[in-house]
Design goal:
It is a single chain. By secondary structure, the protein is an alpha/beta fold. The chain contains 9 helices and 12 strands. The longest helix is centred in the first third of the chain and has 44 residues, at about 15-60.
Length: about 300
């Protein structure tokens, strides 16, 4: 008796009606599986795209940090989970302004989110603050934010249109500073005073005793200065030759104490001279009244 041929038996099974029915069911199953796989991939992609759009909108609109929104603190929680929260916030260089002023400007608080934080943009924001001269911002992953700030140095107080502004040596007005806190600075007024006061102070520094008595300085026509002293006294400086005029004034004060006497005005506008104008006395005022009546 011959042994059965395996290949012949396999051909008979494939040719049988039962095998044909099986192939039909297998093909149908493959189509169903393929359609399900496609639907799953499409749906997964759509959900991922929607999540990305929503996440970008929340970050771009700062809704995650909005105190009035229901998502407040969510960014910080997510960032903390992944190690991108501002848990180590370091601010250097502040002398007069509080750290909160920096944090509020760049929109980051301790423990806040660093996801999507742009250090270059934050630096530009700080440089736009009137009291900031230089600034640098660095993010050191995963959770450190370092800010270095150089403040503008208050130099004088500039009076303009009834308002008072603290200015630096370059004449930059700093509305963020309360001028009442800087009563010891020189008070200047007039157009161009904020730009020229640095040179005036440099010239006055040669005579410290005279400089200490100056209460205010008014810029006249953006050409020259009038210095104001205690008791309503004033000194009119020339447009040019300011150093020589100050030297004459310092000499008059040292020899005659003109800034403590009955002199109301010292006119130094003429070279190599000084015109002294006294305060009006009671007798002078009475004489003026008599003369006025006689006219």
């Amino acid at each position: 008796m011959r042994a059965p041929d395996p290949e012949r038996t396999l051909r008979r099974i494939k040719a049988s009606p039962l095998a044909a029915v099986g192939r039909i069911f297998l093909a149908a199953g493959d189509q169903v599986a393929q359609r399900r796989s496609t639907r799953f991939a499409v749906r997964s992609g759509a959900v991922s795209m929607l999540a990305a759009v929503i996440g970008y909108g929340l970050l771009a609109g700062d809704h995650l940090n909005d105190p009035s929104g229901g998502t407040r603190g969510l960014a910080a929680q997510v960032s903390s989970y992944f190690g991108y929260a501002a848990e180590d916030l370091r601010i250097h260089g502040l002398e007069r302004m509080p750290p909160e002023a920096v944090m509020k400007a760049i929109g980051v608080m301790p423990g806040g989110s660093l996801l999507g934080f742009d250090a270059n943009h934050a630096r530009r924001i700080l440089l736009n603050l009137d009291w900031v001269k230089q600034a640098s911002v660095r993010v050191l992953p995963p959770n450190r934010l370092e800010v270095e700030v150089s403040e503008r140095e208050p130099f004088a107080v500039w009076q303009r249109d009834g308002l008072y502004y603290v200015i630096d040596r370059e004449g930059m007005a700093m509305a963020s500073f309360d001028a009442r806190r800087f009563a010891g600075l020189m008070l200047v007024s007039g157009d161009g005073a904020q730009e020229e006061v640095s040179q005036l102070v440099n010239q006055l520094e040669a005579w410290p005793a005279l400089q200490s008595q100056v209460k205010a300085a008014a810029r006249v026509g953006n050409r020259r200065w009038t210095l104001h002293f205690a008791g309503g006294r004033r000194a009119l400086l020339p447009e040019t030759g300011v150093e020589a005029a100050l030297a004459r004034l310092a000499d008059l004060e040292a020899r005659h104490r003109v800034l403590e006497s009955g002199i109301r005005e010292i006119d130094l506008r003429l070279a190599d001279s000084a015109v002294l104008v006294p305060f009006e006395t009671t007798a002078d005022k009475a004489g003026d009244k008599v003369a006025a009546r006689q006219k």
